[in-house]
Each structure stands twice: as C-alpha cells, then as structure tokens.
Design a protein that fits this description.
Strand content: under 5%
Radius of gyration: 19 Å
Shape: globular
Number of helices: 14
Helix content: over 70%
Distance between the termini: 31 Å
Number of strands: 0
Length: 298
C-alpha cells in the first residue's frame, strides 16, 4: 500500500507540473519574461514554504554543513540552472522540442541511478522508458510534425534534461542522509530563489503581484500548484520508489500540459499521433508499476 501511495504521489506531482502553462500564459500576457515568471514561482514558493516550516516544524530547518552540497544541487542545479536551460531551449527552438528534450531526463536518471545507487536495469524499465519518450515526442508534435532545432537549442534542451534528472539524484542522497522531504524541498526553494532572482530584474514581478488582492492570490495559487505541492509530492514518492521509476511516472507532465492546452486554450492535439502519444505515456506508467511474478522452480 505504501508503494501505491508513493506512485500516486509522484503521479500527482506530474499532473500538477503539467498545469503550469495555465499560469505562465497569464503572466506572459502581463508582460513578464520567462525568467521573471520562473523567479516569481520559485521565490514565492520559498517564502510560503519557509513560513509553513517556521510555524509548524521549525526543527526541519536544521541541516549539517557537510550535507549542504545536496541542497545546492537540488536548488541551484536541479531547479535554477534547469529553469534557465529549459526556457533558453524554448527560446531557441520550440515548446514541443524543448518538452521532449526535457523528458530525456528519465534516461539520465536511469543511468545515474545505475552508477550511483546500483539500481537494477530491468527489461520493464527499459520498455517503459522507450514508450515514455516516444509518447512525449508524439504528444508534443515532434513526431508527425515539421520540427526544426538548432544545435544550441538541442544542447540547452539536453542540459535541461540532465539538470531535471539530477533532482532525483540529489534528493535521494539527502534522503539517505536522514533528511525529511520537507527539509529537502525547503532548501531547494531557498537556493533556487537566490539563483532565479539573480538572473532577472524582479521589479516588474513585484508590480504585477501587488497590483491588487486578486493578483496576489493568483500568484500564491501559482506557487502552490506549480511548485510547492508537486515538489513535496515527488520527494515523498522518492522515499518508497526508485529514482528511475519516479522519473518515468512523472512523464505524465507534458501529456497533461498538452491536454490543458487543448481543453483551455484551444490548442489542437495532432491526429492520430497526439492521441497515440498520450496512450503510450500512460501505458509506460502502468508497465513500470506492474510486477512480473517469478517462476517457481519445480
């Protein structure tokens, strides 16, 4: 049962991350750049989570200096640098290409986990990985569409995939050192906030979120749905399932993003590749969680 809850937790994280486009579109319309929107999301999440921990569980602030590298990894590399590379990839190529390059992450997670944590590479993991990447490519239109990408766009996209994958790795190191998921998430946000604020002019961001009470409320909702809750859910899931399994389950994110785009913004899903891609991603999630019974020796 605990493993099922962990799977559900990671799945929930992927679904919530997939809803980010709903908020990003609004802030684009208000004139914020991609990095300014990212800084708003991360910095406000850091403030909210810090207040929550301060009020409810202040003991979770405690970390050891020798473990600081784990949180610098999750915050600066896995959130801060990842965000920069991902948005740069979008700028130099397209949203579809950037999304698929980002979801090379499960392959990197599988490779890192194999080397660092000695996780077993099974046939089912391999099949699920191939289906997930293929499904993402079909859903976003890379397969079945006319897509062009520059070398720089390709490299930034692969960079985003590596950085995204490293969240699972750095988080697992922190978990193995006895830290709670809330502590990991807290310091991830704090270090990522410092990085993202340093990368852009935040004055327009402050102006947008303080325009009125509704604008502030929308910003808080943005932080909760697209950052605080999914990172908590994903890190909780890592306590019970392997990094490679979690990364494959999280590939529901681009599928959800595509569905949200089609349902709310009227963006068309390619026929038939788009629908086949959605089915393949969900099939990969099912397969990665199927247990093959071992044959008993007669």
């Amino acid at each position: 049962m605990k493993k099922k809850l962990a799977v559900l937790s990671v799945l929930s994280a992927g679904v919530l991350w997939g809803c980010i486009g709903f908020f990003v579109r609004r802030y684009e319309a208000l004139g914020l750049s991609s990095m300014q929107t990212a800084a708003l999301r991360i910095a406000l999440s850091a403030i909210l989570f810090t207040l929550f921990i301060l009020i409810c569980k202040p003991r979770l602030f405690k970390i050891r200096l020798r473990d600081l590298w784990c949180f610098l990894g999750t915050g600066v590399v896995s959130v801060g640098v990842f965000t920069f590379c991902y948005f740069k990839s979008i700028e130099l190529s397209s949203l579809s290409v950037a999304a698929v390059l980002l979801y090379t992450a499960p392959a990197f997670v599988m490779l890192f986990s194999l080397i660092l944590f000695k996780e077993k590479m099974t046939v089912m993991k391999g099949v699920s990985l191939v289906l997930a990447v293929l499904g993402c490519a079909m859903t976003t239109g890379v397969i079945g569409g006319d897509i062009n990408v520059t070398l720089a766009g390709l490299l930034y996209g692969l960079g985003s995939g590596v950085c995204y994958a490293l969240y699972s790795i750095f988080s697992r190191f922190a978990l193995k050192r006895g830290y709670q998921p809330f502590t990991i998430t807290l310091y991830t946000f704090l270090f990522a906030a410092v990085f993202s604020i340093a990368m852009c002019d935040v004055r327009p961001v402050v102006g947008v979120i303080t325009a009125d009470i509704a604008s502030f409320g929308f910003a808080v909702l943005f932080a909760l749905i697209s950052c605080v809750l999914p990172y908590v859910f994903y890190t909780l899931g890592l306590k019970r399932i392997s990094s490679s399994t979690a990364s494959i389950i999280a590939t529901v994110e681009p599928v959800v993003a595509t569905i949200v785009g089609a349902w709310y913004f009227g963006e068309a899903i390619g026929v038939p590749f788009g629908y086949i891609g959605v089915a393949l991603v969900f099939l990969s999630v099912v397969l990665i969680n199927v247990k093959i019974p071992k044959r008993k020796n007669k």
